[in-house]
User: Fold this.
Amino acid sequence: MERLKAVRSSPYERHRELLQQAVRALAAGECRRPFTEATGQDAADAGMRSVRTAVKVFGSLLGRPFDLDQPGELGRVCTESSPYGIDMGIRYPRCDPAALVAAAAQATAGWRAAGPHQRAGLAVEILRRLNTRSHELALAVHHTTGQPPQAAFRSAGPRAQDRALEAVALALAESERVPADLSWESGQGTQGSGQPSPMRGTSTLVPRGVSLLIGCPDYPLWNGYPGLFASLVTGNPVIVAPHPRSVLPLAITVRVARQVLAEAGHPPDIVTLAVAEPAEGLHERLATDPAVRIVDYTGSAQFAGWLKEHARQAATFVDRTGLNTVIVDSTGDYRDLVRGLAHSLCRCSGTVRTTPQNILVPTTGIATDQGRKSLGDFGADLGEAVDRLLGHPARVARLLGAIASDTVRAGLAEATRYGTVLHASGALRHPNHPGADVRSPLLVRLAAQDERIYAREWPGPVSFLVGTDSTSHSLALFRRTVGRHGASYATVHSTDPLVLAVAETAALDAGVHLVQNLADDFPADPSSAGADLHPEGAHFVTGRFRVVRSRQHAAGTAPAPVVEAAPRPTPIGAAESPRAPAPDAGSAAALVDV
Assistant:
């Protein structure tokens, strides 16, 4: 009876229904947002703290040490400053990287033995507790990245948790796809008898090992959660190494995860936080540690390339921001097109990973519902649309964020030297934070031959209007530049089905998401992971584990003893799960990459 109660109270059983729904939604291609929907219905019933409580909790963190009780602590480090002028002064534990790696490696065997169901249940429990702290997490993102409050809540609250839940569901589904028990008949028989011999075996998911999450400076939770939870559910301990500018959001996440793990009887060092001064090169040191077998990173193409080249001992899952491109050929709603582009340029001061950098337009102009518009008309209208959008202080506070990086400031100054400035980046006053560095987007006109300029990744609100010979020329430039340097999204605007078809083929060749004739800034705010899948596809999960198969003759052998402490949970969708093909008789074990 006590054993049965323990099973029913396990994290997996408590969250089984939610996991079932998430797995079914993935299989059906549906977009389910349980955390977001619960918040919309009643935040209090969902257990979420009020904004007022979150402000108090956030304030209690400022100017104090952030304790985690981690191994190898060498001292404290403070690397953050709020772009809105708040003195944060949070002192995080600075731990010996080797000690963190050793602790994670030591925790691997027990975490692997927990099995995917228990790991998925604990992952959902972590997400549920993070959900209650959504406003606190949003404040942490707001004051470390400079995002406006509403955008920070979208990228750190329920929508980010829904995105993480999809990673949990995908990892669980892929884990269940591999059958634990195997049985078949060998054609050779025992000792050459020639008679078929019954065989039995097992399949065990073996995690790759220690996982490293390198945090993104602008969207630490939105970009960090998929890799974090995919690694945990597939059995890999995770070292979380935030960007020095954006530590607090991931530090809160690590603290919650460690608390949940400890309460469940697991070593909290399954999840640890690694923070150091930027000059120490912590990310590079951890990424090249021989014991680190998985690296997750979303951000600049330059560092993503470095990871691919140097972290060769690990499976690297990188998502490069790159050269987001807009191809304009023609439109049936010119006003909507210009207004939507202006909104995309302004959103979060250009830090959204889908902000357009290069807008490719033929110098001969484009056909619109308002007649033919020249390249000069288009640039002028786009600049005026930006000014109209930012003409009210309330919209400035809602759309733009505060500049948090000297790199962005330097880029804004440098880009003006390369072409005709169509819209200057001017300083704007934030109604609530007069000292915040808030700037409008910069739009510079370039020629197609200036590829050395626009084929470089520019941070912040820097965009280029590039005049091309024709739409065909625009598509060729897009294919070449994005294929070489990467991108998160591309957009095409055309009333010609042939242009749309060619653009789709070019996007497939370049390996980039494509949005057709949408001017409402849709790609800047995907509602879930299903709308923003990792470029690695299913390998984003299956690349985090291997399958080890053990086999032997079944005749005359006793069945293996049951060592599970509790009955194994019934797999979600077990009836539909395909069985792996029976292995050929041969060696005692086979190592198979799935």
Notes: The longest strand covers residues 197-207.
